[in-house]
């Protein structure tokens, strides 16, 4: 079932923020600017002065958050430097939404070839990804078309900026769309709780909190049991046993209630499913559905 979740992205220009009012206005998530590269010297990197305050405020009211960094990397060296800076700034925090690299700086886009710029972006994203984070690229339709090699970036989630009544980027499926801010064709540009009453607004088309938490990314622990075979589990409620270890596989039995005990004799390749000989099928080892038995 398709989803469309309304959220905002903010930086120091939106300070102060009353997160309770923002949440009560119906905003479901916020992407916080973690920092930026100086426009005068790309080797000078700064944390947004209100990143920590925004993070704490959003978390206090239960607002899911992600982060973005205004990038000016144009080489492998500057890309690695930005990635290390980002990782240091987000260390110890948890993000329900991706870590985005904001690629739009005009001077940077003119400073190197399309191939070199794309290599820099990929280098930065891969370094953050390899550290255990879900990453993506934020940019505009024409930048991706004319100044970067989008074919090399297709494996990363795309957050497209286009202030319009609809997104016309169609090269790859987009995960988020920044549709408005001061200019807004779809909703009111005013958001209660924002210092200026205006913030960039977005629609998200992915259930990032579920994806990220269940995968153990962005500071979250993987939400699956880890035990040695053989072992027993107990159900925490209704749960399906499937023909193969896959959420889309055929359901062969639905466990009707909590407290049902099963022996697990083997694990799926990714360790997220256990084989139940008694039912000749597979049950999820997600901690939301089962716990260790005895």
Structural account:
The chain has 294 residues and is α/β, with parallel strands linked by helices. It is 24% helix and 27% strand. The protein contains 8 helices and 16 strands. Strand 11 and strand 12 form a beta hairpin. Helix 3 (76-90) runs parallel beside helix 5 (114-130). The chain is globular and about 65 Å long. The mean pLDDT is 95.
Q: Level of helix content?
A: 10-25%
Structural class by helix and strand composition = alpha/beta
Q: For the CA atoms, what is the radius of gyration?
A: 22 Å
- What series of H and E elements makes up the topology? EHEEHEHEHHEHHEEEHEEEEEEE
How much strand content do the residues show?
A: 25-35%
Largest sheet: 8 strands, mixed, barrel
Number of helices: 8
- Average pLDDT across residues? 95
Which term fits the overall shape? globular
Q: How many β-strands, per DSSP?
A: 16
Uncertain regions spanning at least 5 consecutive residues: none
N/C terminus separation: 38 Å
Reading side by side through the largest sheet, how are the strands ordered? 1-2-4-5-6-7-8-9
List the helices and strands and how they pair.
Blueprint: E1 5-10, H1 19-24, E2 29-37, E3 45-47, H2 51-60, E4 65-70, H3 76-90, E5 99-102, H4 106-109, H5 114-130, E6 135-140, H6 141-146, H7 150-153, E7 157-161, E8 176-180, E9 200-204, H8 208-215, E10 231-235, E11 239-242, E12 251-255, E13 261-264, E14 273-276, E15 281-284, E16 290-292
Parallel strand pairs: 1-2, 2-4, 4-5, 5-6, 6-7, 7-8
Antiparallel strand pairs: 1-9, 2-3, 8-9, 10-13, 10-16, 11-12, 11-15, 14-15
Helix pairs in contact: 3-5
């Amino acid at each position: 079932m398709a989803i469309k979740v309304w959220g905002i992205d903010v930086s120091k220009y939106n300070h102060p923020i009353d997160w309770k009012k923002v949440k009560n206005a119906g905003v479901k998530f916020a992407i916080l600017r973690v920092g930026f590269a100086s426009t005068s010297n790309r080797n000078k990197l700064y944390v947004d002065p209100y990143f920590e305050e925004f993070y704490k405020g959003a978390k206090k009211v239960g607002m899911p958050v992600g982060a973005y960094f205004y990038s000016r990397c144009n080489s492998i060296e500057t890309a690695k430097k930005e990635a290390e800076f980002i990782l240091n700034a987000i260390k110890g925090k948890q993000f329900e939404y991706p870590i985005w690299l904001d690629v739009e700086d005009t001077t940077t886009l003119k400073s190197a070839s399309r191939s070199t710029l794309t290599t820099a972006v990929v280098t930065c994203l891969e370094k953050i990804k390899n550290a255990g984070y879900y990453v993506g690229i934020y940019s505009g339709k024409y930048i991706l078309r004319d100044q970067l090699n989008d074919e090399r970036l297709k494996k990363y989630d795309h957050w497209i900026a286009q202030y319009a009544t609809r997104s016309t980027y169609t090269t790859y499926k987009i995960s988020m769309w920044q549709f408005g801010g001061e200019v807004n064709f779809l909703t009111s540009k005013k958001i209660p709780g924002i210092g200026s009453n205006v913030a960039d607004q977005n629609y998200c088309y992915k259930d990032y909190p579920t994806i990220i938490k269940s995968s153990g990314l962005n500071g979250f622990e993987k939400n699956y049991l880890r035990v040695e075979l053989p072992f027993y589990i107990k159900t925490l409620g209704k749960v399906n046993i499937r023909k193969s270890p896959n959420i889309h596989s055929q359901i062969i039995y639905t466990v009707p209630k909590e407290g049902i005990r099963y022996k697990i004799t083997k694990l799926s390749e990714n360790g997220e499913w256990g084989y139940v000989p008694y039912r000749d099928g597979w049950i999820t080892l997600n901690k939301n559905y089962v716990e260790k038995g005895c």
